[in-house]
Records
---
Amino acid sequence: MNSLDIVGDKWTLVVLRDLHCGKKTYNDLVNSPEKIPTNRLAERLKRLEAEGIISKVAYQHRPKRYEYLLTQKGKDILPILQELARWGNKYVEGSWIPPEWFMKA
């Protein structure tokens, strides 16, 4: 297994970006501008949790609701996301323009 097996698919980097930007709940993530399909989001969250990149914490018990938090392993991906954003802004028209705080974090 290599790093692209974990983060190299279409949606994982979007999920990680959104978690770095402060989104925490499933509904927060599903409402991202990219409109990730719910079945894909659920699968990516499970995979990221299994890899130790995020943790799932219950914040409500009836009905059960969870928030997703980056572990240190997940936080360490931020410089990669920042570089991808720089590259995309330079070469890919219509790329997400990150807020200044995201690029300086």
Note: The chain has seven helices and two strands.
---
Amino acid sequence: MKLLISTGSWSMFIGRSHPLLVHLPIGILLIAFILTLLARREKWRHLQSALPTVLLAAALSAIFSCITGYLLSLDGGYEEKLLQTHKYLGIGVAVISTVLYGMERYKNRFRKWQVPAVLVMVLLLSAAGHYGGSLTHGDDYLTQAMPAGLRQLTGMNKTIANAAAYTNIGDARLYEDLVRPVLANRCYSCHNEQKLKGGLRLESVALIRKGGEHGPVLKDSMPEESELFKRLILPEENDHRMPPKGKPPVTPQELELLHWWIAQGAPTGKTVKELNKTPLMMAVLEGMQPPTPIDKQEFMPEDKVAAVSSSSSIAALEAKGVKVLPVGAGSNYVSVDCINAAGFNDADMQLLLPLKDQLAWLSLAGTQVTDNALPVLAKCHHLIRLDLRNVNMKGKGMSALNACGELRYLNLAGTGVTDEGVLSLRKNKKLQQVYLYQASVQPVAVQQLKKELPKLLIDTGGYRLPQLASDTIVYHKISG
């Protein structure tokens, strides 16, 4: 399909000035409304002399806006009923503006009707503006942006159509959950039931396949031959580029998604995991994976607990330089970090006991604690993350951590923990990650622990990356 090039005309040119000029009478009429109310007070009576000029300018600009609006309507592409409503309301604004000018000229005879007429003008102006916005952006343009509280107050508290309806990208339906939201955000404002640019509607696959005034816009399995895709990649200055200049463009990720959907035959009801994916598409889809809510993450406790009973317990830790924070909004579990408390030692471990039921994440990295701290840690039954990097531990009594039945993450890098200490962790069935870089653990013990806990990730570090030629710069002295 070839793109049609419009030759233009004076009527089209003047008509398209309507969105620019229509704001002039709006501003003037609102000024007239304010002046009319103020001039009724003795203090502001002198403003009365400005009203005839203001109302004449408003009437003339409203009439000219009606003319340009009519010429714009000849372009087509608008829902007829909505267009007619907007047109008659606009004519109503022009008429009432002219009437107001006449009433001002003969204000002695019509003074008592002046304020009611001005109020009618404001109502007509508001209604005409609303329907004009609906023609341009769609009838739900404003309601889509409503905050949740306002939607509930106005009775529009419905699920947002574009919200993700999946928790795993593999289970997302390609058209319904991924493609349709892109079209809704980028294309529906010009291609919907109320505004039919090019006679094209995009609210459903059936309407997309039907096409517009110039024929089909979709060719299955051929994105580069489909107008729906071709117009998205035109240069910004091209008149046929979609979305048009001035509106938010489709992102590169969205382009890849639409290209893939068309290449797959523009299916409906198919999930991502059912379709073939290129490496590039897999990367794009990975970026679309919804984040896991903090209360559903793997390293978050599932049980509910009461809040820490005494604020003095937290204060005592903070006095040592320890940072105590909630692990998430609305959660009573806490994270304790000794990053600024290098002197924290075995005796200070007792300060953790008042928080033992709420303690979920604990970092003792770089502190002065030893193996003597392990019995205290064993009392923290909800402990999920434990960071013991670079502390003076040999792993004696490491089996005490078996009492921490929720432990998932354990960092022993830079410690003196031996094979015996590591192998004593085999009863921690929920343990998922153990870090042993520069620990005193032999490969044989690592392999044995992996054998007993096959799902456990054991990271021994010590990675070496090959040096590339581009990693170094060599300078040569130029003779002479």
Note: The first strand starts at residue 323 and ends at 326.
---
Amino acid sequence: MGNLLAEGIKADHIRAALIRQRAKGVHPSVLPSLVNDVMNTPTRSTVPSRAWTNPADAAAAYGGQL
């Protein structure tokens, strides 16, 4: 864990990985992989708030260039 902190990884990421490690019951050597998973998990803010829909007036939306 000290190596991860020395590499500049945030303590919050390490804490979240430790929680996952405890929940999964895996060997401590898996911790760096779990930290990587935590750091690369998309957050809700990257998910679109609504699905894409066709515009009601396609000619106005695309300038008549379909």
Note: The mean pLDDT is 83.
---
Amino acid sequence: MRPRTALISGASVAGPALAYWLARYGYRPTVIEVAPALRGGGFAVDFRGAVQLSLLERMGVLDAIKGRATGGSPMTFIDARGDALAAMPAEFAGGELEILRSELSRILYEHSLHVPRGGTGSPGREAAATEYLFGDSLTSLTEADDGVHATFERGAPRTFDLVVGADGLHSTVRRLAFGPEEEFVSHLGYYVAGWDLPQDAADLGARPVGYSEPGRLATVGRTPRRTADPGYAGEAFCVFASGRELSYDRRDPQSQKKAIAQAYTGAGWRTPEVIDTVWAADDLYFDSISRVDVPHWSTGRIVLLGDAAYGATLGGMGTGSAMVGAYVLAGELALADGDHTAAFARYEELLRPYVTACQEGGRHTGEFLAPATQEAIDARNAALNDPATVQAMLDQGHTLSAAITLRDYPALLGAALAQPAHQPHPDR
């Protein structure tokens, strides 16, 4: 019998993680990514709690991620004079283990390329496990008796046994197979932006600070992990409120930069200097803070994973949830031995309560970072200055992250799969 094939859209986090597990269980995964290469830059992402950390260890990437850890993201909230008002500890945003999204993506990509296959073939034998197609995108998905027929912007049409949408908040797979984005994505009233500061603005990022005014936050700082990078001066990170969804072209950075500049007109402190640096940014991230709710994560042979199915732009533990989701989806497919209908149903049954609870954190992230009134800003700062309140919030995050019991799929599928995977050095 030929190996089962799976097309995975998206090469950020969920896609490469799923490709690794599927390849380990004998599948032939293909990952398609619209970007011409792995994306650089981006925010730091985090893992927290025993469930997420043990999963990274089981996958064989925990040491590599620890070797690239940022050390967390502490920040001091300041007033217009630059005086400290409150401090946010490193673990508040950075969990127990924080890493730049681009570096996590690189580790998972390299880990998925050569996988010891235990599901079919010789146990422990390494093969070129995952095919990557960069610089291309799906244009149609059509189910047939023998699989899903996929067409692409650039590549030739192909047929796959399964298709997985791991392509984020604005998922192409979800749009093609489930319906238009507006049916599933809810705007939560805020926007978020991030970019690297130019080299001549090094003093702006000298210390990690955030300045809040009603409905808007501007922060600057440096990630210690990046201090040796040539030309690195720090990052800017902004969150602002908008009761209506903004009209801008997601593929046009200039349109996004105009929206950001308009949102911060008249802001105090050194915010005008911070915002002025966006015009030279070539690595801008800009999006709404939104939540994804899909009534059913699968249709036929097509299934959604990560942000495409249960995303929350910021504060919803999306990275940890995506990794857990990839592990559960691949494991259930392997246990079902080709019965994708049963596997997809079980994946959703096991995972939905967990990710829905995690998503709730994202509902209030904008309000916390950029409160709508000065009274709400003062209340947030008072909470951060109360150690008991901070600890309670940290404990809540740990409780949510651990609220799932993972099956030991490698053990269930055979001792051969439990052997440690080859782990290439992250610099290769």
Note: The chain has a mean pLDDT of 89.
